Amino acid sequence: MVDDELSMREYLEILLVREGYAVTSVPAVAAACDVLAKNPVDLVISDMKLGPGGSGLDVLRAARSRKEPPEVVLITAFGTPTSAVEAMREGAYDYICKPFDNEELRLLVHKALEKRALRQENSTLKARLLPGLGGLLVGNSPRMRSLWQLVEKVAPGRSTVLVTGESGTGKELVARAIHLSGHRAAQPFMPFNCAALNEGVLESELFGHMRGSFTGATHERQGLLLSAGEGTVMLDEVGEMPLSTQVKLLRVLQERKVKPVGSAAEIPFHARVIAATNRRLEAEVKAGRFREDLFYRLNVITLELPPLRERPEDIPHLAGFFLSRLAEELGRPSLRFAPETLTLMERYAFPGNVRQLQNMVERAATLSDSDMLGPATLPPSVRGEAEPTARTSEGGEPVLGPGFNLERHLDDNERRHLLAALKQAQGVKTRAAELLGLSFRSFRYRLAKHGLTDELDEPTPRA
Predict the structure, then answer these.
(1) Cα 171 from Cα 182, distance rounded (Å)
(2) Under the GO molecular function aspect, what terms does this record hold (predicted)?
């Protein structure tokens, strides 16, 4: 409580202590700043006029500058609330005019503290959930700092966000960060892969369907956009969506209503939509593979994730983060990188981006017998060496020479087969998975494991 009149301080202190609050009262701005600096404060009540030492606006600014700012209620003279309204624009919770009713003040204090409690609860929730992002957004480079600032700005709204970037840069994690940083954090986050399902199933999963609307529809189903409630739906690999489904998605985003398959009724939905792609949608529009009107609808706000090769200064931070997590999991707290190991990592291009770095750190920590991870724990390609290969004898049996490693040899063969399947399938991953006899989920895992991006082969239009 800040007021330069002793009688008012004593009156309000008695009133609020009777309500069960712990109250500290001071006469001036300097004393208020001292209390704020030394004690946790939930609510500040300050008179606007505090004599020659400052005003309630100075108290407000001091309170708002704290790391966890308290709510601020200002007391102003009857008929002159203009300055108090201006203070609210600077972050004050509310104001009350003299003379005021005791019950009015009690209610205002209760509501202000309730808001403070909700804000603290939300901060606690985010602090508990954000580490689950896996650290892929760790980084002190200017581009990552700029990205985090954009995440903070867009999180409170409901505008559609388009997240772009190469495979392995952490697009889903950015979408989760947007979700967890806003008021939707306690609501569901539902990622959905647009490339994993055929056209009919894709629409059913997104929009829902009525019983009997198609073969196998034995019961009514609510789609993701409705079942997410007021949460977030992430449309991953939106560039893979069939053109016919793109038309329907455009209408859904424009009208904010969903029409389940087989239904004549449209149902409003309240979920936020975040789209993600590793394709250049402008090029896809020119090639006729993506609708221009849907592109502009999704492209309200764009967040572009830089590839790891464009922010090498973040590599030591990321590698250290992953290693600290592994050290805890493996029960080896002394695990650390040799300086020359980090230097080699910083020089490497990382075609698979952050996901490849994470796998590399896991490989080094798992296979190393020493707590000091030297250059030998890195793959030969990172060290600038050629991979030793197996030769074949005249009888067809492999001849194993010095330096041969079966795990690396199998990995190399797997990588070559993945590339061959992608080339044969003209870049369509669902077809490539079928050629290799793999499920789509398994195929995506192997692509990520080897750090293969979709840009390796330019895809051709679907038939």
Answers:
(1) 17
(2) ATP binding; sequence-specific DNA binding
pLDDT at position 372: 94
E strands present in 324-448: 336-337, 372-373, 391-392, 398-399
Q: Are 164 and 278 in contact (CB under 8 A)?
A: yes
Residue ranges of E strands in 146-198: 161-164, 189-193
- The DSSP line for 137-153 is T---SHHHHHHHHHHHH
Quickly count: other Cβ atoms within 10 Å of residue 38's Cβ: 8
CB 173 within 8 A of CB 134: yes
d(CA 271, CA 152): 19
Q: How many CA atoms lie within 13 A of 406 on its CB side?
A: 2
Dihedral, 247, 248, 252, 255 alpha carbons, nearest 10: 70
DSSP state string for 361-380? HHHHHHH-SSSEE-GGGS-H
383: β partners: none
> Domains in the chain, please, with CATH?
6-126 (3.40.50.2300), 134-306 (3.40.50.300), 311-386 (1.10.8.60)
Dihedral angle sign, alpha carbons of residues 446, 450, 454, 458: negative
Burial 375-390 (b: 16+ CB within 10 A, else e): bebbbeebeeeeeeee
| Residue in 196, 167, 191 with CA at minimum distance from that of residue 439 | 196
Do residues 19 and 64 touch, judged by C-beta distance below 8 A? no
Longest Cα–Cα distance in the chain? 104
- Alpha-carbon distance of 412 to 222, in angstroms, equals 44
Closest CA to 359 of 348, 370, 369: 348
Mean pLDDT within 72-86: 73
CA–CA dist 389, 387 (Å, integer): 6
Cβ atoms within 10 Å, residue 165: 19
Cis peptide before 99 (omega within 30 of 0): yes
Residue 343 has pLDDT above 70, yes or no: yes
Name residue 153's amino acid. K
Distance CA 434, CA 428 (A): 10
- Interval 378-426: pLDDT, tens: 988 888 765 555 555 555 566 666 556 666 677 778 888 888 888 788 7
From the list 312, 393, 311, 367, the residue with the least C-alpha distance to 345 is 312
Residue 136's pLDDT band (cuts 50, 70, 90): very low
Q: How far apart are CA 158 and CA 272, in angstroms?
A: 6
